[in-house]
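Q: I have 124 residues here and want to know how they pack in 3D. Can you give me a structure?
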Amino acid sequence: MDMEICWHGRGGQGVVTASEILAETVVGEGKYVKAFPEFGPERMGAPIRAFTRISEKPIRVHTQVYEPDVVIVLDGTLIGKVDVTKGLKEGGIIIANYAGTPEELKAALGTDAECHTLDATKIS
């Protein structure tokens, strides 16, 4: 099973760390993985992305993820400000830190993708 994940959040929220933790976990299961951030000179709080690739075979691709299977949004305030659905594969999944229901997230994003929400900000 190959999987490509695109993470969205803001600088300082742990987007890169979350991507790396997932990668370390997957390596422990004997899979191949690459995890890397995409950001420039942005400051704390600026939107950033990170990527995770998981495969049963060695990964030879060294570019960002253009067509993710899964999108994970750690900061719900990015919804409507950043196109988090860009390139999402048919049948893709969106998991978001979002105060609304999955149906409300679908409407806000204008997508038919499978959506899952959790108001992690409220929990924290």
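Q: Anything worth noting?
A: The helical segments are 15-27, 102-109, 120-123. The CA atoms of residues 61 and 72 lie 21 Å apart.
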